[in-house]
Amino acid sequence: MPKTILISGSNRGIGQSIAKQLLADGYQLSLGVRDLYQSKESSFDCSQVLYHRYDALDPTSALAWVNATVKQWGGIDGLIHCAGILRSTPLLFADGEELDLNTLWNVNLMGPWWLTRAAWKPLCSSGQGRIQVFVSMSGKRVKGRMTGYSVSKFALMALCQSMRNEGWERGIRVTALCPSWVNTDMANGQSHISRDAMTQPDDLAMLSSNLLTLPNTAVPFELALNCSLEI
Ligand SMILES: NC(=O)c1ccc[n+]([C@@H]2O[C@H](COP(=O)([O-])OP(=O)(O)OC[C@H]3O[C@@H](n4cnc5c(N)ncnc54)[C@H](OP(=O)(O)O)[C@@H]3O)[C@@H](O)[C@H]2O)c1
Fold first, then answer.
1. What is the mean pLDDT of the chain?
2. Distance, CA 224 to ligand 1 centroid (Å)?
3. 175 closest CA partner among 129, 131, 139, 111
4. Ligand 1 centre and the CA of 169: distance in Å?
5. Would you give the distance in Å from CA 36 to the centre of its chain?
6. Higher confidence at residue 192 or residue 6?
7. What is the number of the ligand 1 atom nearest to the C-alpha of 179?
8. Is 82 close to ligand 1, i.e. is its CB under 6 Å away?
9. Is the overall model pTM greater than 0.90, yes or no?
10. Average pLDDT of 198-224?
11. Which CATH number fits domain 4-225: 3.40.630.30, 3.90.1010.20, 3.40.50.720, 3.40.50.2020?
């Protein structure tokens, strides 16, 4: 029986590359997307894929997505959090920019939190549940003027540690993936580094795929991936 993996943020960027790779690997995929119509236009036309509405700002959509997946495939073996947003909200944010901070917090932290909570029971039942979280190098060090983004990603790292600690005895293994710039829409407007010099989403998809093959005794908790030297 193929394993079932949920992927958020899978209609473009890193999540889309991972979905393509895992489909080729033979997994059953449950893809949570904000715009079902748009996603189906460019969809993987395949009986191995379930699409469901998922908006990180709407916790009820997380539970509905998980329930629909369990109903369709019978369980959940892995959850890959790729949904996320970037805002360049600085330390001394302007009046009104606090709205960006709320959105960063709710999408980048509370989204994965609600979704993990919804999928926890089936992941535990798997006995070898896997959670991969796309954090960022911005969850490990603060650089530039992206304070709001970094704060949300540091908090996400804390969530990852908590998931690892509380899931360990139930066979859940968590990996926090921390790339610097990746060649996706999110990196639009970054003129200091060329697209070719960024980490490529297909390479992250290979990593994600390899991580899923590892036994409970060999899954790394954290992978830091720099595309350029930082000292
Ligand atoms: N690209 C980088 O340089 C980089 C570096 C380090 C870490 N990361 C992290 O890696 C993850 C994936 O990034 P990416 O580069 O693939 O970004 P991306 O190309 O901008 O794609 C972001 C994905 O997140 C989804 N999303 C955004 N807001 C959402 C919401 N409220 N509910 C559900 N889905 C939502 C988007 O869906 P829609 O299409 O509906 O908008 C899209 O599928 C993010 O967490 C990001 O912070 C990225």
1. 96
2. 18
3. 131
4. 30
5. 18
6. 6
7. 6
8. yes
9. yes
10. 98
11. 3.40.50.720
